Amino acid sequence: MANSFFLSAMQIWQRIGDNHLSLIAAGVAFYTMFGLFPAITAVMAIAALLTTPADIVAQLNALSSVVPEEVARTVISQASAVAAAPDTGLGLTAIFGLGLALWSASRGVGSLIQGLNVAYDAREERNFVHLTLVTLTLTLAGVVGVVVVLALIALLPAVFAIFGEDELWAQIANWLRWPVLLATMILGLSLVYRFGPCGSRGRRFAPGAALACLLWLVVSIGFSVYVSHFASYNETFGALGSVIVLLMWIWLSTFIVLLGAEVNAEIQRRGTRGKAASEGIRPARGFG
């Protein structure tokens, strides 16, 4: 079993290089970075329908325990600026931000779909309309998912306050935030792995989603420690230091998502080879 795991790990490592996943992740990170700040504006505006922007900003402070401090500071700063904007000017800004965010995010999702097709050995056979609908649906689902997660995280303390103002309930609410976030991330990634690549019926998606989410938490915390204690991005890049850290973190996150797809693909390939071997059939290369 250990030998089989080692061979699978080596196969995944080789395919990461052969499929240029780091380069694909860089393209997705560029479009994500380009649309991040308009997306924050749009998310804050939409979240105002469920809770107050000030509550969202307050809950975002918890991100500093998971993501690098520079990343959290940049996101919170932009969110605070949007929350402090007059209500009269927020509507037009939100519409513009939502449009720009959707355009940029859809380009990023489109690049991610190409990467998923590469990971799953799938040939893109969907027509332009079908592919555009899938891309926009995944983009909108991502935006709505972020809003819902932030709203849930913000509302959990209020819900548990119903049972009393005991400190125990507040601690339970704080601890539940992260399982809720992790479960939502696993579900969201599973949907991306299921509907993103072409012809994904019958493919595995849950194992890679769970692994990617757990690995993302570990890498984010590790990168945060590295940036805080060892790296000197601010000294090297000056005022752009926080931006560079944010871009690096997005690139790492995207790479982990693609890695999860490769894990799913390897599990599927091993299952296909095992089934073919039991039936005495030589499996064809790829399964997309």
Structural descriptors:
288 residues; mainly alpha; 80% helix
Describe the structure.
- The chain has helices at 2-18, 21-47, 53-60, 69-83, 87-119, 128-161, 167-195, 206-229, 233-237, 241-279.
- The two termini are 27 Å apart.
- The chain has one domain.
- The mean pLDDT is 79.
- The protein has ten helices and no strands.
- The chain has 288 residues and is an all-alpha fold.
- 80% of the residues lie in helices and 0% in strands.
- The protein is globular, with a radius of gyration of 21 Å.
Q: What Rg do the Cα atoms give?
A: 21 Å
| SS-based class | mainly alpha
Q: Give the N-to-C terminal Cα separation.
A: 27 Å
Give the beta-strand count.
0
Main sheet: strands, sense, barrel: none
Beta fraction = under 5%
Give the helices and strands, then pairings.
Layout: H1 2-18, H2 21-47, H3 53-60, H4 69-83, H5 87-119, H6 128-161, H7 167-195, H8 206-229, H9 233-237, H10 241-279
Helix pairs in contact: 1-10, 2-4, 2-5, 2-6, 2-10, 3-4, 3-6, 5-6, 5-10, 6-7, 7-8, 8-10
Summarize the structure.
The chain is mainly α and 288 residues long. The chain has helices spanning 2-18, 21-47, 53-60, 69-83, 87-119, 128-161, 167-195, 206-229, 233-237, 241-279. The radius of gyration is 21 Å and the shape is globular.
